[in-house]
Design goal:
By secondary structure, the protein is α/β, with parallel strands linked by helices. It has eleven helices and eleven strands. The protein is globular, with a radius of gyration of 19 Å. This is Phosphate butyryltransferase. Pfam families: PTA_PTB.
Amino acid sequence: MIQLENLDFLMGKSVEKGLKRIAVACPYGEDTLGAVCEAHKVGIVDAILIGQEDKIRDKASEMGLSLNGISLIDERDDYSATEKTVKMVSSGDADLLMKGLVKTAVLLKAVLNKDWGLRSGSLLSHLVLVEIGPLGRVLGVTDGGMNMYPDLNAKAQIIQNAVGCYHNLGVDEPKVAVLAAVEAVNPDMPATLDAAALTQMASRGQITGCLVDGPLALDNAVSPEAAAIKGIKSPVAGNADLLMVPDIESGNMVGKTAMFLAGCRTAGVILGARKPIVMTSRFDSMDTKLLSIALGAAIS
């Protein structure tokens, strides 16, 4: 079975998939503009930048970036720029969408527009790939960015979205650990009940294309030694590819702990829309945004 060892594979994978067109709403930040220009330079994307053209050109000049070969569409209002960006992706004029310096709520309102948005009938969810140096592999974490307190049905959809992404990356049967604070089912801990139900749903074919086990605590999900000490025998325990977290708070903390305390590299994408959405945070580095573009391009 294929296991992702580091995030550098995303660059090659995205180039291998062929040049994709990315539409970027309001790319005024240095990290966003720099990442898009680099992705264009190395042949991952053909970029279309929508927003205040003079502001974009001034920022590129300030950074010493070349905009040769990159299309710019002048739109003075951020709301209109966001709407135009989403419409370009929805119409097929672009293959993926990226958020620049525009509020998340504004972007999602456009994405979810019933007439020209990117609705697919599936739940939108966030997946972040985290390069864990000490483990020598990449772990996926979902959903620490979209769904606050998903119920059982939503959790099943979140897993299925992430599994589809893994399939596109070449992992045919990802191992999914459904996390809780403990690995034993406890009626007083709802996360353990959902984890056990999701495991059973996978065994009955209600969740497909992956191996699912839970509840698992974080240690015995990623450490074979921890799983062995606790006597957990499972193809997932100790070797998880994907961590399904109970809620947005735990997922957000896992992701930010990896980034800010352990210095891990990450790449994130919104799944469940008709096209991938690269929606990074303002504090994310240029490397994170470049890798996120590569991830979106690789699965589009």
